[in-house]
Each structure stands twice: as C-alpha cells, then as structure tokens.
Give the backbone structure.
Amino acid sequence: MKRGLMVSAAAVLFSAVAAQADYTLHVLHINDFHSRIEPISAYDSTCAAEAEAKGECFGGVARLATKIRELRDGLRAQGQNVIVLDAGDQYQGSLFYTTYKGRDTVEFMNAIGFDAMAVGNHEFDDGPQGLQILAEGAKFPVVSGNLDLSQSPELKGKIGGTLVLEVGGEKLGIVSALAMDTPETAAPGPNVIFMDDMDSLGADVRELTDQGVDKIVALTHSGYKRDQAFAASVAGIDAVIGGHSHTLLGDMEGAAGPYPTMVEGADGAMVPVATAYAYGKYLGHLVLTWDDQGKLIKAEGQPILLDGSVVPDEALAARVKEMAEPIERLKQKRVAEIAAPIDGSRETCRARECEMGSLVADAMLARVKGQGISIAIQNGGGLRASIPAGVVTMGDVLAVLPFQNTLSTFRLKGADVVAALENGASQIEEGAGRFAQVAGLKYTLDHAAPAGSRISEVMVRDGADWVPLDPQAIYGVVSQNYMRAGGDGYRVFAEKATDAYDFGPDLAEVLADYLAKQGPDFAPGLDGRITVK
C-alpha cells in the first residue's frame, strides 16, 4: 500500500518572506552518485592522491557538501527557498559500497542534509535488506511512488509514496517513480510489487491536487527519455528531476540536451526536465517560479561542475580518509589462485588476442549467460596490467580493471558487430586502446589492409559449433559502459544498440568472481579466437 508523507522539519521549513505574487524555489539535485565517496578523475573513477593535490579531480562527497552548503546558506540568507534532492542510485560503484553496504551513504547524506531521495534500482542490489539500511538510517524521506511494499517486511512503512514539504510557507508536493525493469536489473525480490509508473504518477498527482497542493515536482529514477514522457503525459506535474540514464544536460560539450529540457505537457503548459549526469561530478541547480495561481511561469538554471576550484569540506574529507583505511586492506583480500601468469600487456592486448582480453571477455559473457547474450567485446586499452601466477588479490584485479566500468548489455545487428570490430582494428598502427578482445566470437584480422576493411571471417558460437555471423540477424552483446557510450570510437554501440542496459556490476567484480570459480589449477591460454594474417 502506498503512503503519503508530510514533512515539516527544521531542515525544510524556511521562514516566509514578505508576501509576493510569485514564488521561487531553488532545487539543488544530484542523481546516480554510485558510491563515488572519494573524488573522481575525468574518467569517473577514483582519483589518485597526486591528481587531487594538483586540483585535477572532481566531485567526492566532501566537495559536494561544500557546494551545497555554500549555495543553500547563501540563498537562504537572501530569503530564498531551497531544497536538496537526490534522484536515486546512491548505491554501487566503488569499494565504499562493497565495504559499507549503504551505511556510509546514510552517514554522508545525513551530514549534507538532503530533503528527499527517490529510490534507484541499485538500491535493491542487495535485495530489500540493502534498501532497508538507507530507509531506516536516513533523516530525510525516501520515496518511490510505484512500489507496493505492503508485502515486504523489510520496507513496509519505511518508503513513502508521495511527500509534501513545507518550504517558505508553501506546500511543495513530491511524486516519484522507479524504472519498471528494476526486477531485471537489480534484486527487489518477489515481495516488492511494481505498479505502472505512468498510472502511478497520475494517481499521485491527483491525490496531492485534491489536498490543495498546487506545486508538484516529480523526483524519478527512470531515465531522461522516460522523464520526458512523464512530463508530456502526466497532467499536473510542474517539473521533473530525474536520474538513471546518467544524462548530461546543459550548454557544455557532450550534453544530450538543454538544462532544463522543456517539454509540452498534457495541459499545454511547458514542463522542465532536469538531470545532472552522475557520480557527483555536477550539482544540478534548477530555479522554478510559480505565480500566485500555482502556475509555473519560469524554469532556468545550469548544472555546476564540482571541479578542483571547490574546496572539500574538511571534516567530511577527514572522515572519508578514515573510512578508506579498511578499503585499502580490502585490496589485499585474496580472491583466487592461478597456476600461470595472465598476460595483459599493452603490446599484445592492443594488437592481437591476449590472455587477459580473452579472460575478461569470457568473464563478462559468463556473467550474463542467462540473458540471451552470446557475444562479448572488451577494448584492449581497458586492460591495464598483467597478473602473476599464484595468489590473486583484489588489488591485482583492480590494477587490471581500475576504471570502475560497469557491465553493459544490448542488442546489435550483425553488420554493426562487424563495424565495431572494424573500429577496434582501425588504429592498430598507433597502439590505440580500441582493439577488440572478444568471447563467443571469432574473427580474422589483416593488419596490412586499409582501415575499415581489416576484418573478415567473423564467426559466432552456435551451441558447440561455430557458424558465420549473419549481417541481418540481431545478437545479444555484452560490453562495458565506457564503450557502450561511444568511448574508443565505438559510436556504433551508442547509435545502433537497442535494449541497452549500462549499469550492471563493476567489471572488476565480474572478473574477481569468475577467477574465484576457476580453481587453483587455472592457467590462461589463447584459443585462436582472433586470427592475424
């Protein structure tokens, strides 16, 4: 059964300024933080201490705390209304989550002072019990409107369906929805029942409207495309603050659209949609203005880059350092034992079949074997080290795969698979990292041929047999999020993939689990999956 929450606490109850016809609200928001407690590099992975000292890092919970406090305190001092929202997926993505399983999330979010958070799919990665840690520990409401939790002993009564915040003497309604495919991408279990997201949002908006709430924001974790559909279809929503797709909006290079993106709503009004990339690299700042009839008349703002110019909060930075100590010990954790070294050298993995490339691709394919996936493609440049024979530690695995890339699955036409392989072979002369290491696939490579025509004799596994790849057939492919987004020239993945899901487990975790299952007699080998002429 869904529930509504009414919050009127000091964290969100601001002194009303002199009565005015218009009402302005500043919304500070993040989404898809994915456990990036420590600062990140330009590649969204944990930033080295040397780079942090040079001011080359971004984000991190201490830097985020500084910017939120600076903006919130400054705006309040001017008599402005401010709320701080999170659109979900605090969990999963670094060894902080592996170590603390959400307890760190609770501590840091409470310290920053969030006003509300939507449930993300990765909050269910460790089942309802994982989300329970956040729901019970947070000093702010956690909401998700399209979940029926009446049968969940862990979550019943702990996650709100709707929320009303009193801000500056006005009631602000929050409705929420979580991606409908969460049962396939996480582990909510059989007792968490998903209701249609569009229908649920509509019903919740009507419920709040009937209560006299005329300012309503949807805080969702469904992705940029779905958020635009919500804005267009659900009458009564004034703005959408979203997450899930890790979409960058704004006027910077690489943005997928303007911030906010304006969508014509069901009643003809323009509805702003905002999201703020991921990993705490940006803090969204959306400014909404309503007239005295409760009609939204202005929406503006930009995401704020949390770069080295933002000084991390000293207290939180010290706490992060303290909590990182056992993580350093985790890197010493034994995960497997192997009988022979695994070659992951740059020279081999960027030019031909290499042991580490085959191993990682095999591990990727094994992880998703039950999802109709038959092909794995991993870029050689993503493999950063070899592993010696003997005991393998988590630190060894992280040296090979340090980028915190997540598993991506999608569908791709056979002709586009060949195009991806051609991209991988296009810069062999330069030692480029795009070279394609594969599993479930065989191909022949001619180094001497012109770029774009170096690949031939592409075969795919069909049971115990190998058969020619069909250019018109659709294949299930597994790769990782960097490549799926077009990294290393794999634009065909970004432009042609369908049914894509980019937020699977960390690739290092996938490799560690796979190695652990091989046993101490495991020795890598080359099986001719890439033939070089």
About this structure: The radius of gyration is 24 Å. The domain at 4-325 is CATH 3.60.21.10 (Purple Acid Phosphatase; chain A, domain 2).
